[in-house]
Specification:
399 residues, mainly alpha, two-stranded antiparallel ribbon, flat
């Protein structure tokens, strides 16, 4: 829905963005010139302009990559919530693409899984069919990641050959490709932490919450980079007046976007520690505003990252603070003369902030059902999307 909305707005004629002279913000012929400057490829002493249809094609491709990253985060959340992430105990780039085919191959894979801590220490009563179900989600998640690499890499080569990649975009594409490779390696590094024997025989077999947060954080960064660059190619820019009020609004929008990112990242620690199951009440935690075991670990800083109570406490109050900040940004946007498209995005951001808080509270009170927790994680990325889009709308164009 988010990407369809973005694409439909991108198809509008630039002439429809004109505003009366009494408004602070206007889009004029200068916007057209700025678009041309943004997509000019210099070759020697001459400038070669990328055709508009080429710009749009590159933009749609980048938005497609962003959409696939969004789906990857969602699939990863389901994999985590269904306790499927440790079902495949090895990683192989090519051989790993072929799942077990025969009954003997499935039994061999199942017996291999039984040798690792999750099965041994949790004494899971899994049938072969149960194992196939959890194997599916981890396999699907891995294959989806490989698919993103193909959807990114093959069109990139095509567009480079066509000359539709601007000089400034080329190094960015190299960074995106590097992040994709890094993300795959980081995913396996995370899984390995859950396959290792723990020194404490009573420790719960789970992946490191630090590695889980790193894996989610890098995925969100890659998603945001794809989305920002896709919007650059699809949407005509707004010519905004450089007023003090608008400058403050830009800074506030950047701050809100950072807050959304940090809040979503704190959710990874909640997931990694299964902290969503320790205090299932709201707004208080077991009839207390500050629970007794919030600083149970020593040194104290470890509680934020390794104490389930503190992790939930931090995440729920970060979420409330972020929602309040985003609603404040929405209110400021209403009081500022802005183009209709920018106002639409601001309204969507405010609505999504309220929705995300509701999803979080519902997830907590219902003891983290898979479907609701998945919606909450997807909601976090949707909220980040609208925050980034609004920041993109308010950006200052290069002269």
């Amino acid at each position: 829905m988010f990407f369809n909305l973005c694409m439909s707005i991108g198809r509008r004629r630039l002439s429809s963005m004109a505003f009366p002279s009494r408004r602070v913000i206007s889009t004029s012929d200068q916007s057209v010139q700025n678009v041309c400057k943004m997509f000019t490829r210099k070759t020697g002493t001459t400038s070669v302009h990328i055709p508009p249809h080429g710009q749009k094609a590159v933009g749609r491709w980048l938005l497609c990559c962003a959409g696939m990253c969004f789906a990857a985060v969602t699939i990863g959340g389901i994999t985590r919530l269904t306790e499927s992430g440790l079902s495949i105990t090895q990683w192989n780039l090519l051989k790993g693409m072929r799942p077990p085919q025969t009954e003997d191959e499935w039994l061999e894979e199942f017996n291999q899984y039984k040798q690792f801590p999750e099965y041994k220490y949790l004494e899971r009563e899994l049938s072969l069919n149960d194992f196939k179900r959890i194997f599916f989600w981890e396999y699907f998640h891995r294959m989806w990641g490989r698919s993103i690499a193909l959807v990114f890499g093959l069109p990139a080569l095509y567009f480079l050959r066509k000359g539709w990649i601007s000089k400034s975009l080329k190094p960015r594409l190299a960074i995106y490709g590097g992040l994709l490779v890094f993300q795959g390696a980081l995913g396996w590094y995370m899984v390995k932490s859950g396959l290792e024997e723990k020194s404490d025989p009573y420790a719960m077999p789970r992946v490191s919450q630090y590695r889980l947060a790193s894996h989610l954080g890098s995925a969100m960064i890659l998603y945001a980079l794809f989305l920002w660059q896709g919007l650059n190619h699809i949407l005509p820019p707004n010519q905004l007046a450089n007023t003090v009020k608008l400058g403050r609004l830009r800074k506030y929008a950047h701050g809100c976007m950072a807050l959304v990112f940090v809040t979503a990242l704190s959710g990874a620690f909640v997931a990694g520690l299964d902290a969503g199951l320790v205090y299932n009440s709201w707004p208080m935690m077991a009839n207390k505003w500050i629970p007794d075991d919030i600083l149970a670990l020593s040194p104290k800083w470890k509680n934020v990252f390794e104490n389930a109570t503190t992790s939930q406490f931090t995440h729920r109050h970060l979420g409330e603070f972020t929602a309040a900040a985003v609603l404040g940004l929405w209110w400021l946007c209403l009081r500022t003369p802005l183009p209709p498209r920018t106002r639409l995005v601001a309204n969507a951001l405010g609505f999504m902030a309220v929705t995300q808080v509701g999803l979080g509270i519902a997830t907590l009170l219902t003891y983290v059902p898979v479907w609701l927790a998945t919606a909450h994680q997807g909601g976090a990325l949707t909220l980040l999307s609208f925050a980034l889009w609004l920041t993109h709308e308010l950006r200052r164009l290069p002269k």
